[in-house]
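LOG
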Amino acid sequence: MHTYAAAQLIGTRKAQCDATAVRTVNGARAFVLLDGIGETENVRNWVRAAAARLARTAARRGDAEAGLRAVYAAYAAERDRQDSYLREHMPKAAAIVAVSAPGRPLTVAWCGDSRAYVLVRGSLRCLTADHNRRRVYPPCFLWSKGGSRNQLTSCLGSADTDEEVQAEVQHPAIEAVTVPAENCRLLLASDGAYEPHHDAGHHLSDYLTGDPAEAAAHFTETAVALALANDPTHADNATALVADLRP
């Protein structure tokens, strides 16, 4: 039985611009999910290559944050991304990466609003905090919806530094967490996969049963069905990667 699997649906988008990748180097296994901004073939192709690049780099370094920072810096250094006009037209994506290795803690790093969860002994915990305007301007009495959850404040492909992002929105360009190694189920999900569940008030753990392939498929299929039930004209790309981890 495979210990990990991914599933994705295109929804009503013109192209599938989410991508996943898994790479193992010297026992360190990197799990990556990217959610591309836009729905063009150019974004789709870039996201697929970027996901593979991030998985290779994170696995080689054996650490999620080190891998993501290296790839983020490499894209940020591209000449076109240094140009204030051209950078707006370059492909970008919300990125999440987790690295697991025997005898080591689980490391997770992200930029954007793709999320990582761990299911431990029936309890589901979200490890990430979204990089979007809703985090900067949370719902309150005077503004019930808060800032837009669809407007990212950080992403892979940006040229902004930690300091620049921190000064503008009070969080760095990249954040990371370390989780003690233990038996758990890891979920990486794009916003098109987790948002419909949250909007419907679902307990996400209810959709993570079965083997990883069954759980990933159930999670994404239900997400798209919920999105279409709410608005028959729109369902985002939905992608989930599920992995069973052992310490």
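LOG (cont.) second protein
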Amino acid sequence: MLLVPFQLRTYGVILYLALAFPLGIGYFVGTVVGLSLGISLSVFLIGLPILAATIGGIVLVASVERVMARRLLGADIPSPAWGRSEASRLRDQVQTVITNPILWGSFIFVLSKLAVGTAAFTIIVFVFSLGLSLLGAPLYYDMPGASVGLFLPDPIQRELSLVVPWEQFEVGISFIVRLTSWEVSTLPGALLLSVLGAFVLLLGLNILTAGGWICARWAELTLNPGKVEE
């Protein structure tokens, strides 16, 4: 856990997750628009090339994603064996491609990329914006016009109680938690915030690394569901 910031693989995971959001948007829009146009225009035959181009795009994207998952996440994804159809009729060849589980796995992965990218983008922005701002508090806490600390519109007060029945009596403990605004105006307070920022960054990097591990397993499951080449 403590060595995560010093491992090169950590920043490969962050790069993969940071790219997931813009790529996910492009994948989702391209796939949905391509399939919608292709299916709706297939009665006029012009939709068939659109469908073919969309399927080809999904296959191409999946190939690129396999490389990214191997290089950045360390995923174990061999090159898939699509298989060759010996059918002479075009209809049979198309059916072979459409029913291939690798294509459907790639389709699921491409559509799921947007959800993965949205979650990753949210975590990355939150972790680095909060962590770096806290970490750098000693550099700007005393600048004119700067306010560093926790600022609440109203104090938050909660009463916590624990009551345990004992024969005819009730024995318990109760205490009040009150959270109010807190402004840092001294160097020790700013250094305390800096330590908190380092902890936020360390925790966030570990969460992102765990997310990268999950993404690697998801890529292995969806991008190679069929047999692989020997």
